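Inputs:
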Amino acid sequence: MVSDMRTQLARTATDLLEHDPNVAVVLAEISVDRFERAIAIAPDRVINVGIMEQTLVGVAAGFAMEGFHTIAHTMAPFLVERPFEQVKLDFGYQGLAGTLASVGAPYDYGTEGGTHHSPGDVGVVLTVPGTDVLVPGCAAELDRLLREAYADDRLTYLRASVAQNDVAFEVARGRLEVVRRGTRATVVVVGPLLSRTLTASEGLDVSVLYTPSVAPFDSSGLAAVAGPDPLVISVEPFYEGTLLPSLADALRHVPSRFATVGVPRRFITTYGTVEEHDRELGMDVAGIRRRLVAALEPG
Amino acid sequence: MDTVTDRIAHVRELLALATGDEKHEESSTSTLDVTWVLYDEVLRVDPANPMWEERDRFILSKGHGPAAYYSILAAQGFFPESWLPGFLTWGNALGSHPDRLQVPGVEASTGSLGHGLPMAVGVALALRAKGQTERRAVVLCGDAELNEGTNWEAILLAPHLKLSNLTLLVIDNHSSSIPMGPWEPRLGSFGWDVVVVDGHDQDQLYDALSSRSHERPNAVIADIPEGEW
């Protein structure tokens, strides 16, 4: 296993490609160096289309129409926002399977500015009915989830990021992990924010649940832990509140309160490292703790 | 019915069965001859087995005006002719844009312009990856549809990938507000093998569609004079 998700993505995809002639990879210049071995193994099934992202998705759909499980890969804003209609129609409406694997969200390319940020990617993809959305917390989880997406042959958005957790779980699509038990609130953490949320919530009497699976979401798992009169706080590595419809649906039978900790819904106009953006946007340990404490305050 | 003339006359009768405000009469009529020639004489398909692995693939990219397409699929036996009077009506499969999940023989669900050609590039690549070098992907676009930038991405890409198993068939009924020709120098400069024929001359259409370059992607421009369908 490698240490970063992006390299793991290429390695796992290459392994799938090597063992199954019905796997294809379509790239748009990004990460081509990481796919050199894949290109050598199967040049007819690893296609770099150049800088044309609508065609990236369209070509991937064309492969899927012929029975291939296609992994289409580029940076998040150029994979699901720019070619959104290709995702929606070429894959979604046509009922085709494949994996759309991104890097860079929400603001990994911190020095590049707002054109390269994509905190809205998950929200956008969730509007395509029937699409799985998986946000792994580390390279090992990405490996596991990509293999599951391939095996199940569903339309999947798989989001790789620079940020990672310190520990890996044996994650599965549609499953929450109970990491910590408490009584005042249930904190649902998505993907690579778990480690910092565990640190941020030390000394707070809260349950902490973890999942990389935004869709499908483990509704019954949340309902079982949250109890009869819950306060649920999401910690999400995308626009705050993106997870809220899933939380509300899971707890629709009980009176519930919700709070969200995520990327604020405004354009990011600063330049700097991921860590600097985390601090500015309240997504570092101190920011998450401040927001959790605020959510726990009465009234 | 034995002769080609009789059979296409029958398709025209079938076309009359499909009615409705969204029939796109001009669009349907202008694609009638070329689609007929494709299905009757050029494409390798099996109406009894629409997903036959050894078939040629046809994508009606522009999606508009599918009544002619549906009529020809029905005449070829992909689905019963009795479906045609249900065109555009509730509970029937034949909508104003074709749906691959509902209509036997339809390869792609289209209607939003500019999607078919990039998908056809993917299909052509997949056929090559599967070793089906004799099978081809044919995609029909309208001249105005080629305003869409996605097409020009694919037009740039296909020659680079040497997709000689891909044919772009353009119905040029001069519906584009921006004139798209001259076709030979424009597409030729991207590396396509280009031929322009009379869009209602079935012999010319057959010759153009049944032969192809084995080095470059192929473009057949079916010209429909301005003001005609």
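The interface with chain A takes residues 100-101, 107-109, 112, 114-115, 117-130, 149-150, 153-154, 156-157, 160-161 of chain B (CB under 8 Å). Flag for discussion at group meeting.
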